[in-house]
Amino acid sequence: MRACDKKSGSHLRARCDAQRVSDEPESARRPFMPARETEAIILKTFPLGEADRLVSFFGRTSGRIRGVAGGARRIKNRYGSSLELLSHVQIWYVEKETRDLVRIQQCELLESFHKAQADYGLSTGLALVSEIAERVLPEQEVAEPMFRLLLLTAREIERRGEWKLPLAYFAFWTLKLGGWMPPLDRCMNCGKRLGDAPAFQSALFDGMHCADCRKVGMKPLSAAGRELGVKFSAKLDEISIGPGEKEPLLELRETLLNWIELHTERKLFAREMLETN
Ligand SMILES: [Zn+2]
User: Fold this and answer.
1) Over the stretch 185-215, which tens digit does the pLDDT of each residue have?
2) Which helix (H) or strand (E) holds 103?
3) Distance from Cα 191 to the centre of ligand 1, integer Å
4) What is the mean pLDDT of residues 86-106?
5) Is residue 145 located within the same domain as residue 246?
6) Which of 12, 18, 44, 219 has the smallest number of Cβ neighbours within 10 A?
7) Helices (H), 161-204
8) What's the number of domains the chain is made of?
């Protein structure tokens, strides 16, 4: 910890700053903050300049944060494979009072999802999970249930070697945790119970619609698809999908992704990229 730590009090900090004025160039004269540490999940990385990476991570004790991993694009770098999509890591970073981005000092892999990250088809599932998380998580807000959901989803994509069920489960619980999940058993428009009848949905309207209230462009979600929602109250690693449930699962996934787009007011880019074969 530095003597110029913010927590050391304004008097001491003022003195430290004053000291710097005399012997440091203008650009370096920023107040230093102590290094922070958190368990995190890597959401996204982008190349930054010639040698660095911009990293978006979701810290268990920090919430979603963006930072710069200096030198991460060099062949020999200190991050190894810890900055891969949805890697579970321990991360150390320094906040700067005058910048939005933190500086990542160190990142160590706690758990990697190598199989999923290396497989093109599986990585399209990881990418959509990460895009949804990036979209719904507010910056710097701790969200323990979302952290556990994200980790469970990545683990299950890796363990099962498929993303369809884990992605639908993730979308379902993202809507639930966000308070956005409409009832699946009644019409949002007239309130009628849907029973075994097919119901309809789209990205433009919230909730299920009965055949009488169906609007142009709405797609069906069968009773079997809606029933899967009931199954999703169990933990993901305890759920299995029978051969007859593949189509209902697809319908449910499309419905849930539509509603995430509705509530976040933007199309999900990675949705178009999903490798469905
Ligand atoms: Zn209706």
Assistant:
1) 999 999 999 999 999 999 999 999 999 999 9
2) strand 102-111
3) 6
4) 90
5) yes
6) 18
7) 164-177
8) 3
pLDDT greater than 50 at residue 5 = no
Same domain, 159 and 226: yes
Distance 209 CA to ligand 1 centre (A): 5
- Mean pLDDT score, 103-124: 94
Q: Are 86 and 152 in contact (CB under 8 A)?
A: no
- Please name every residue paired with 221 in a beta bridge, in sequence order, or none if there are none: 199
123 in any annotated domain: no
Residues 74 and 173 grouped into a single domain: no
My answer on whether 146 and 202 are in the same domain is: yes
Residue 122 resides in a domain: no
Q: Does position 23 have pLDDT exceeding 90, yes or no?
A: no
Residues 160 and 260 reside in one and the same domain = yes
- Per the structure, the complete domain to which residue 62 belongs is given by 36-112
Beta bridge partners of 52: 48
* Residue 208 Cα to ligand 1 middle (Å): 8
Residue 117 lies in a domain: no
pLDDT band at 146 (very low <50, low <70, confident <90, very high): very high
Q: Which residues line ion ligand 1, judged by CB < 5 Å?
A: 187, 189-190, 192, 210, 213
What would the mean pLDDT of 223-227 be, rounded to a whole number?
95
Please check whether residues 10 and 63 belong to one and the same domain: no
Residue 202 near residue 122, CB atoms below 8 Å = no
Cβ atoms within 10 A of the Cβ of 217, count? 10
Residue with tokens 């209230």: 213
How much distance in Å is there from the Cα of 184 to the middle of ligand 1? Answer: 12
Give pLDDT, residue 31: 58
